[in-house]
Amino acid sequence: MPEARTPAQIEADIARRRSELAVTLDEIGVRMHPKTIIGDAKAKVASKVDRTAGRACVAANRIVSDVRERFVTEDGAPRLERIVPVAMVVVGVVGLLTVSSRRRKA
Fold first, then answer.
1. Is 15 left (phi over 0), alpha (psi -120 to 50) or beta?
2. At 106, is the pLDDT very low, low, confident or very high (cuts 50, 70, 90)?
């Protein structure tokens, strides 16, 4: 059987619960304030952008490393047997684009 509480104990318990409820309501008010919601949304977006940018940077670094391995030896010397054909293709494509753009203008 529960102990009988005095009116003073009951009043103290009510006052404590009111105080706890006031703190909880203040927290809810802060969390639901538009500035807090906007700030949280901005922080989430910034976090995702940072994460995405980091992943993109890692992927780009990996691609650059792979390309470098194909066109440069381990000691840093260029691999001309691979660079020259690629350079010739690039020059050919640029030449074709230049000629085709001149024909369109004429």
1. alpha
2. low
pLDDT in tens, 55-83: 999 999 999 999 999 999 888 899 999 99
Query: Rounded to an integer, what is the distance from CA 50 to the centroid of its chain?
Result: 3
Q: Rounded to whole angstroms, what are the CA distances from 43 to 9, 28, 34, 38, 57? A: 45, 19, 14, 9, 21
Q: Which two tokens stand for residue 48?
A: 């995702």
Alpha-carbon separation of residue 16 from 10, 25, 26, 71, 103 (angstroms) = 10, 14, 15, 74, 87
Q: Is the pTM of this model over 0.70?
A: no
Q: Which residues does 31 contact at the CB level (< 8 Å), separation at least 6?
A: 37
d(CA 98, CA 100): 6
Mean pLDDT of 18-35: 95
Q: Supply 72's token pair.
A: 């440069």
